[in-house]
Amino acid sequence: MRRAAVVTHGKPGTIGPALERLEEVARRAGVELVLSEEEIEKHGRIDGSGDPGDADLAIVLGGDGTMLRALNRFLGTDVPVFGVNFGRVGFLASVQPEELESGLARAFAGEYEIVELPTLAAEAAGARRNAVNDVVATSSTLGRMVELEWAIGDEGLGRQPCDGVICATPSGSTAYNLSNGGPVLVRGLDAMAITFVAPHSLDARPLVVPKGRDLTVRNRTPDVSVTVLVDGHAFTEVAPGEEVRVRLDDRRSLLATLPEATFFRRYRTTFAS
């Protein structure tokens, strides 16, 4: 391990002390820390600049939102992302704040495993965006129901009055999808979960779809647009009659974890305790 990129929580006052602890662990391990210009400006550092894409590992100090930002930032590279949780849930992180020194020392010594996480590609109006967690199509008007026509591949599955629909990767299945009663997909599955939000129906059930079967969602609401969110960030607006397509992408994001931080252990400690 020679170089590690650093990605931190958005509030420097919250994460500053943790960054100092990281710097001390890196100094002892002989690892050079690389900070983007944004990180240097955020924390008032005068050194550490370089290309994060040339790092051997990316260290995240933050919650799941920061982890998603880092996983997307390094998508398509060979840089795995290792997280120290400074958020509320921290399902994607490998260690907790009190384990920072010991966990990072092990990571810098190469004692981590790499998990390949499937990603989604959302396409609408000629634009394209990748998601690590989920793509959500929801009503653009608060409190207004929308009517969504949906299809898997070339097979139409009818129209569904609802507040929206979630398309989630396995890593995203434990987020908004889970809170809406969708299925949890174990890491290693190359599939996506499709779950409607507040469907006005007695028979709307979540669906798990394998790779190669695209989801098409067409807005059939006559007077309300649909907002498409990618990993929680606005991507585009789908006007009445227009559509968004979502599919499992060929590119994978790389998650670095300590050997004992397995999916089932994280699932038990996060949701079952």
Describe it for me?
- The chain has 273 residues and is of the alpha+beta class.
- It folds into two domains: 3-112 and 258-271, Probable inorganic polyphosphate/atp-NAD kinase, domain 1 (Rossmann fold); 119-251, Sandwich (Tumour Suppressor Smad4), CATH 2.60.200.
- It is 21% helix and 39% strand.
- It contains six helices and 16 strands.
- The strands form two sheets. Strands 1, 2, 3, 4, 5, 6, 8, 9, 13 and 16 form a ten-stranded mixed sheet that branches. It has a six-stranded antiparallel sheet with strand order 12-11-10-7-14-15, with no helix packed on it.
- α1 (12-29) links the parallel β1 and β2 (32-35).
- α1 (12-29) crosses α4.
- The two termini are 35 Å apart.
- The model has no long low-confidence stretch (mean pLDDT 93).
CA radius of gyration is: 20 Å
Output the CATH class name of the largest domain: Mainly Beta
> How is the biggest beta sheet arranged?
10 strands, mixed
Write the H/E string, N to C. EHEHEHEHEEEEEEHEEEEEEH
State the share of residues found in helices, binned by percent: 10-25%
CATH structural architecture of the largest domain: Sandwich
What is the CATH superfamily classification of the largest domain? Probable inorganic polyphosphate/atp-NAD kinase, domain 2
How many H/I helical runs? 6
Could you tell me the CATH topology label of the largest domain: Tumour Suppressor Smad4
For the record, give the distance between the C-alpha atoms at the N and C termini, rounded to a whole number: 35 Å
Strand percentage, roughly?
A: 35-45%
Structural domains: how many? 2
Overall form? elongated
From the helix content, strand content and strand pairing, which structural class follows? alpha+beta
Q: How many β-strand runs?
A: 16
Whole-number average pLDDT?
93
